[in-house]
């Protein structure tokens, strides 16, 4: 039973994998947090509770003089009634008063079930045995507001997901000013925080620092997740490493403005708050209306940071990604973007496909530049009709010609955008997000469509649907190349104007859902100038994301290493490109980096000598032999590119019978020595063969593999196979 309720002590205990989470319903109806950490077997956890006492300047409710909500550890804190830390809930009444205080009403345990989140992507169960869900019903009688806190408790993995549904059961209009998904309280603050920061072409660098008093906020105010900070963080004990120590992971299943904040209080407790960013947020709840927050994912590991990653990888691969491509090997593709940019026609694409066929590549993806007057990046977004004059034939003919070369066909869209210089804008200037009377703020000469308008959503589903139906299309790359400005919709009353940020995201989810349901055979990949919208919510619709516009293999080591903290390798689009940044990197090294991802190419194959095409054919054969272990194996980070010139990681099949080790050295220094790379995740007693040798798992994991390299960009790929004994 993963969810237990002790009626005497009124303690709720959740057991998820190796973790326990506990809370207490006080006699006065407050819901206090008791514990989150490694599994504990007792159900009587009363003695663990730290009561928030009434320190001066931390006021108490009139009916509970010994309690201070400002110091108590809580499950869903509210604003305006005595807790001065980050609230989950902020509500304004019609008269402008804002204050809320929630009291427990009842709870239900939903065995083997996980309710869907209205209009939002979320993790799901494949079988009832995977999880139970706890629903705790709370209310603020004064407001007539009912709040249900959901905790989905996974039995076999250390995952609890949380979200809340807020319902106006009163008679007056309420305005939500903050409606977070969850907060998690810790009575201590001696943690390091690990986050993923970046910029365009520098996504998801790993940053680690101690918590300090006050708040550390990871957030987006851009309308999308962003390159700058991911909606993911780890809190870990000070000495925690990849393999040792306690760690907690937090991530939001959402693609818009988010907040993930760790706040250390005056009492040295830590509150982690996670949800839709209250920045510029407002949501009107009329009597009878309900608002559902996005889902927050909580993970626990007592085997260091790697444990958090492996738990999330499994969860996202099996309980978040959907559709037939979830489990199918992804095709090796060639994308024409870096090969041609906007200068291509059917002739050129077919010539690339011909070379690709010689290298056993599966699919050609036609990137930006095929539609309307899209001869450059200044125009035509929104005009989703093939430019036959530029291409020299129809889409159907082009797809047939590529198929005749032996490749499947994929296509690029940037659905959410509109260029002021487009037929769409000339017909519907009001469809762009704008403030009447104010000029547009442009990014890459484009504006963003107002997805809160049903007619815009219908246009996109229809125009994209028509293209996808008109030819045999096997893959779609869904791009998003700027962030939101002029976030306003004249169609909404002023009282609802702050809803546009969130309504945009809901509109996007509706469009994607319609298209992925209608075209279940298509493999969708999301993209936002590379990995600017790499989040779990997008993975619910599209099982892979283009990891970065930076295809330099040396830089990619860092980007993919950082991305692996929360996302499975199979979800990271990674391509072999020409050498960038003045560095000459051997083809096989570039390919090895891209193989730690959803593998493909992005260079002009017609300009390569036949020997390189032949080498690609060999590399593709290797990749296919290793693909299932890369895609579905457990991932262990062994050496960090953020700490030196070496990067190493490995993949181990679930049954530990096969493993792939990848070691990269970007630079040798004078007088450098060989290294002994100790492996992880193997069966200690098993015998593994590789490169003509046979060694036991314990030797490989404790002694290691002796590796070296006397030149820059040296690398090793070691394929280990268990020897039957
Ligand atoms: C973005 C993508 C690139 C490419 C271009 C096309 O930058 O990340 O891969 O598709 O758009 O304009």
* Domain module count: 3
Q: Helix coverage percent of residues?
A: 10-25%
Label the overall shape: globular
List low-pLDDT spans. none
Give structural notes.
This protein has 725 residues and is an alpha+beta fold. It has three domains: 3-319, alpha-galactosidase from lactobacil brevis (Beta-galactosidase, Chain A, domain 5), CATH 2.70.98; 333-632, Aldolase class I (TIM Barrel, Alpha-Beta Barrel), CATH 3.20.20.70; 639-722, Immunoglobulin-like (Sandwich). Helix content is 20%, strand content 31%. It contains 13 helices and 38 strands. The strands form seven sheets. Strands 6, 7, 8, 9, 11, 12, 14, 15, 19 and 20 form a ten-stranded antiparallel beta sheet that branches. Strands 21-22-23-26-27-28-29-30 form an eight-stranded parallel β-barrel, surrounded by four helices. Strands 5, 10, 13, 16, 17 and 18 form a six-stranded antiparallel beta sheet that branches. β1 (3-6) and β2 (11-16) form a beta hairpin. α7 packs parallel to α8 (500-518) and α10 packs parallel to α11. The longest helix is centred in the C-terminal third of the chain and has 23 residues, at 610-632. The mean pLDDT is 97. Bound molecules: alpha-D-galactopyranose. Alpha-D-galactopyranose binds at residues 337, 367-368, 377, 412, 479, 481, 527, 529-530, 546, 549.
Descriptive tags:
725 residues, binds alpha-D-galactopyranose, 38 strands, alpha+beta, Immunoglobulin-like, eight-stranded parallel barrel, globular, ten-stranded antiparallel beta sheet, 13 helices, Beta-galactosidase, Chain A, domain 5, TIM Barrel
